[in-house]
Amino acid sequence: MKELTFGNEGKPKEGTFGNGGKPKEGMFGNGGKPKEGTFGNGEKPKEGTFGNGGKPKELMLGNAAIARGAYEAGVRVAAAYPGTPSTEITEIISGYSEVYAEWSPNEKVALETALGASMAGVRALVCMKHVGVNVAADPLFTASYTGVSGGLVLVAADDPGMFSSQNEQDTRFYARAAHIPLLEPSDSAEAKEFTKIAFELSEKYDTPVILRTTTRLAHGQSYAEIGEREEREPILYVKNPAKYVMMPLNAQKRHIVVEKRTEQIAEDTNHFVLKRGEGGESGVLGEIACGKSENNGIACGKEGNCVRVACGKERVSGNTECGKEGVLGGIACGKSENGAENGGYPILHSVEYNDRKVGIVCSGIVYQYVKEALPNVSVLKLGMVYPLPLKLIKEFADNVAELIVAEELEPFIENQLKANGIACRGKSIFSKQGELSVDIVAEKLFPAYGKGGNNAARDINADGKEGTGKGNDIISGINKTDGKDGTGNAECGIKNGNNIARDINKTEEILKTDQARDSEKAAENLPGRPPVLCAGCPHRGVFYVLNKLRMTVCGDIGCYTLGALPPLSAVDSVVCMGAGIGMAHGFLKALPDRKNVVAVIGDSTFIHSGITGLIDSVYNEGRVTVVILDNSTTGMTGHQNHPATGKTIRERDTVKIDLETLCRACGVNRVSTVAADDIDTLEKMIREETERNETSVIIARKPCELIVKQPKKPYYITAECKKCAACMRIGCPAIKNTGKGIEIDAEGCVGCGLCQKLCRFGAILQR
Predict the structure, then answer these.
(1) DSSP label at residue 609
(2) Rounded to whole angstroms, how far apart are CA atoms 143 and 188?
(3) For the residues of 203-259, what is the DSSP string, one character each?
(4) 3-class SS letters over 450-500
């Protein structure tokens, strides 16, 4: 693949970031002459350049800047599967001794490892290319529900133009579908700072955060300031199954939390903004001006007025500088000395008012193309593209005659704006395929808005009749908002749509009849019937032991999820199929001194997606103790066969995968098998294996009671009962405390005998 440095097909464009061509007049705010140390001229920046008070800057790949940002943010665990254009992030961060870094078997396991580390209370980073997000989608969507403890950031590197990929999918849609905030930096300086901000947002809003890059940003270079690492003590882990065990009852409640969180971020993101001065006037920074004329935040070509990149003046703001008195850059970090004027919010967006005939909304690397191709237009650069700052965009739209959305790939921003009644156009100008570039932006927009095109633009916006064609008439009609033109009708349609939505809501209220309300009231009076493990379930004894030993248990999807409920209360987390092993691995990497952590997974789920997690722990020198609950079926969904049962869907004999042999083939040296109801032996094994510094597997085997179909004589409680209630601790539905004493329901008991093993007084006998 050709070297990619902000140009087309690997070749830099004239005037692009000081790369050998002549910069446009006024670019960098220096009259056209690049300053020493400005973007790739082979010289070191002067002390104080970018207003950094002497702090060093380096010319960095976007990927290197992300790695540096994660390091400075105090990340302790980083996991990834290599995929261009994201690979270098993890390679570089592995060079920091303070960070545990690994290549995982795939992106799903990488995210599960990072999620486990986050649950343990440390900041964790996971990196992948865009198609890797498909592989990681299972834990990603549920991680949105569980939230985080330590900050969790997922870097997704999209590849417009498919330089090294099989498709051009757009990660922004994943963020929207999963209700996860997504940030998009526009250069290396922002890549570093946005990474740090992403961790702050993650912890503030209790959510994973996606940082989206593209090939141009990942492999392009620009300057970024080098800061110090912020060492952070792990957040104390507190068992919280309501937050981390996503069985339906808990997940339903967490979904409400997710929706409220998204609404809050959507409101707050309107404040994540730097409003720069208009027209290049000296000393103007908009609403949060620092009061220093020499610290202007816009590119105006006047001496002493800073560009967002550099002007070579000491004490002048740069794009990432925020820590100096009187200096305010484009990414203030929100601390008291850096963001007090903005209410302590981080700064991600920026508004640059210039010629108001046209306003362009853009994000990421596209911002660089727009600024070089159209230096005189008004621009709203979005740093967070989900959720969108709709109030901010609406305000910007109201202050320009015409709104254009410049974005690569899908009309993600454009469609949301139109859905919210903000008139704009975008994909009628730009393609849905491939990258944008300075040339493409200039070619598509210069005829109307560039040099010599201002009159045409002015005519279009004046009456909607003159200009480049009918498409512009439509836009002008929208801008008129008089409700009379064709587009006015379209706008009215949007308004009518809102009325329809309101009518629907009213209709829903009407449909809530007296009968429905009576049904709801009756349901409130019904006794609670929480799901429980079946009487005789072979998993019950395992969870009893894990609870007794006070283990931190990373669980999985299946019947055994119910081991999280009282009185067993053993399971700490359930995210998705196969996640338990990866999360336990990440938990232990985050807290190396912890011993009492195990992963629990069923035989069917282990075949489904647990094998890669086990390989990850072995390969990366983990020390997870994995307990495979082998009940010889896929129990939760109704007893279906799987490769370890030796039967096909038609009950034909086939090859039976041997779990012991499979685990040893994965590199596990210690594989033990025990009867699931032999709780004394099981307890001894778990104590021993969790003390070892290697990955081990315990297979607790006993068939599901519902497929054995060999009922045994039930048990009963004798007069010798001391009412200690030890038998109640296993949560068997056949054992009841009547208030007068403890009884075993003969109809419900299947004769497993677990309760008898717990009774120290010999008061439980078999009939």
Answers:
(1) I
(2) 28
(3) HHHTS-EEEEEEHHHHH-EEEEE-------PPPPP---HHHHB--HHHHHHHHHHHH
(4) CCCCHHHHHHHHHHCCCCCCHHHHHHHHHHHCCCCCHHHHHHHHHHHHHHH
Low-confidence ranges of the chain (pLDDT < 50): 1-52, 278-341, 451-512
Q: Which two tokens stand for residue 355?
A: 């010629």
Helix, strand, coil % over all residues of the chain, rounded to 5:
40, 15, 45
Residue 645: phi and psi, rounded to 5, are -95, -20
Taking the model in full, what pTM does it have? 0.78
Q: β-pairing, 764-766 with 715-717?
A: antiparallel
CB neighbours of residue 168 within 10 Å: 18
Angle between helices 130-146 and 248-268 (to 10 degrees): 110
**Distance separating alpha carbons of residues 85 and 76, to the nearest angstrom:** 23
Distance CA 387, CA 408 (A): 18
* Terminal-residue alpha carbon distance, the chain: 76
The span from the CA of 88 to the CA of 80, in Å, is 10
Which residues, 6 or more positions from 600, have their beta carbon under 8 angstroms from its beta carbon? Answer: 542, 546, 553, 554, 555, 556, 560, 563, 571, 580, 626, 627, 629
Residues in the chain: 767
- Tell me what pLDDT residue 132 has: 95
Helices 470-480 and 486-511: crossing angle in degrees, nearest 10, is 50
Residue 766 in contact with residue 715, Cβ under 8 Å?
yes
CA 339 and chain centroid, separation: 25
pLDDT tens digits, one per residue of 175-220: 999 999 999 999 999 999 999 999 999 999 999 999 999 999 999 9
The C-alpha atoms of residue 505 and residue 516 are separated, in whole angstroms, by: 16
Instruction: Look at residue 723 and give its three-state secondary structure.
Output: coil
Partners of 103 in the beta sheet? 80
Q: Residue 153 in 3-state DSSP? A: strand
The burial of 760, by beta-carbon neighbours within 10 Å (0-12 exposed, 13-18 middle, 19 or more buried), is given as exposed
- Provide the pairing of β-strand 349-352 with 273-275: parallel
Residues paired with residue 273 on neighbouring β-strands, in sequence order = 349
CA distances in angstroms from 122 to 76, 156, 226, 405, listed in the order given: 6, 21, 22, 38
Distances (CA, A) of 537 to 8, 562, 675, 686, 702: 63, 11, 13, 20, 9
> What is the bridge-based pairing of β-strands 124-129 and 696-701?
unpaired
Helix residue spans in 702-758 (DSSP H): 705-708, 754-758
Facing residues of 673 across strands? Answer: 699
Residue 90 structure tokens = 């993890």
> What is the bridge-based pairing of β-strands 273-275 and 571-573?
unpaired
Kind of pairing, strands 273-275 and 377-382? unpaired
Tokens of 376: 């005189």
**Dist. CA 381–CA 377, nearest whole Å:** 12
- Contact 430/406 with Cβ under 8 angstroms? yes
> Cα(728)–Cα(732) distance, rounded to whole angstroms?
7
Q: What pLDDT is attached to residue 274?
A: 86
pLDDT digits (tens, 9 = 90+) for 339-352: 334 667 899 999 99
